[in-house]
Prior knowledge:
The structure holds two protein chains of two kinds. Helix content of chain A is 48%, strand content 9%. Chain A is of the alpha/beta class. The radius of gyration of chain A is 19 Å and the shape is globular. Classes of the chains: A alpha/beta, B mainly alpha.
Amino acid sequence: MKYAFYPGCSLESTAWEFDKSTRAVCRALDVELQDVPDWVCCGSTPAHVSSASLAVALPVLNLQKAQSLKLPVMAACASCYARLRTANHKVQNDAEEKARTERITQKPYDGNTPVYHVLDVLVNQLGLDAIRARLESRDDDSNPLAGLRVASYYGCLLSRPPEIVAFDNPEHPTCMDDLLEAMGAEPVQWPYKTECCGAALSMTTSAVTDRLGHKLLSMAREAGAECIAVACPLCQVNLDLRQADAGKAHGRLPETPVLYITQLLGLALGLSPEELGIEALMVSAAGLLAEHGAAAATGGDR
Amino acid sequence: MAERLQYRDTSLLEEVESRSGTRVSACFQCHKCSTGCPIGPDMDLLSSQVMRLIQLGEEDELLASKAIWLCASCEACSTRCPQGIDVAAVMDALRIMAVGRKLAPADARGKHFNRSFLSSVRRHGRVFEAGMMAFYKLRSGDWFGDVDKVPKMLAKKKLGFLPNRSGAAKEVRDVFRRAEEEDQQP
């Protein structure tokens, strides 16, 4: 399996551990990635709230570059993923939009370069059976994730709008939970899987993101989770970097590590924390992982 | 919201429908969008009220509202609307119109953030976070928000001092220029 990888800007900075762990996990699972040559920013939310034409042209510029590789595109950032899929949808369904975009990029584009999210690639293209088989073939039988109680948080952009982005149920997705279960972790049932974290409002109106973050963190805890799994750099920053602020504004919370699903999968596959950038988390996961690693090593249940 | 709602004309409705590609006229005020909106408690107008004001033609009040700048584009409203209205696309159209008509409130920080973000992309082809944040702080006057985060982010290597330029930065500048020209077409 081979994909044209579109990392996106966050994966070069605030979410470098998502980049590192995505590449490490794909390597371990024989999913080959080749970066989209000279990729550029997808425009993210600032483009679609500022210019209807730019919001399609920037993603299309990248999809045209990916076309030269003749590979399907895989994105990790949920926002990039949604913007690339939305641009394809618009070009495919609106002849005027297609013509305008081709005038702006000065290259033809038919909207047919397939775009997948890494979670979709892992769960649906590679498949849980293949991942299970790989997990079972590990040399030592201690699983650092055994019994780890995780709230899987999908957020908005992997779920909505369903006709464009969803590869799972938009109101009650389960693919991350299934993947966690395959890893031997214990996904908890909780009601805020697809609630919004406030996204880019953290830059401008952090009072809103702190309120939403607190709601999500406290519900995850109430549901029994010890940590949260995410697949979006904005969700991660809002729940991790802003966790202390959310606690200060709305009531103390127990420290809750917020890990990328690729980091958790990497640990289950036997990769080291360094290979997965675990140290990049603001709320450290070291204590939690040591506790579980220790429990697994002694064969004890928590 | 204005105390007495009065119908003006359909010009605003027509413009918003054309820009957003969605039928705002189909809204029958079920309030499902407002009920599920995560930012609703912080907004001066709920999304269902925004839909009604568009139907009535209340352009000034809408384009000067804070609500359109607080929308996080989470798309819960668009996903759940029983009439199939893309409410989030309507919010995008209103923000674009507010900037075009210089009606956005001075404290609409989202406007400054979008400008800062897009200038960074226009210059480097990719977002240069540190530069973008400095530019945003200059434009918005929000000097002290989150300065405590900077050392932590530097320590975790999450902010770089130099931009990661794309090899296609020049191509991106041309795309910005041509998109601007397209946006100015009537």
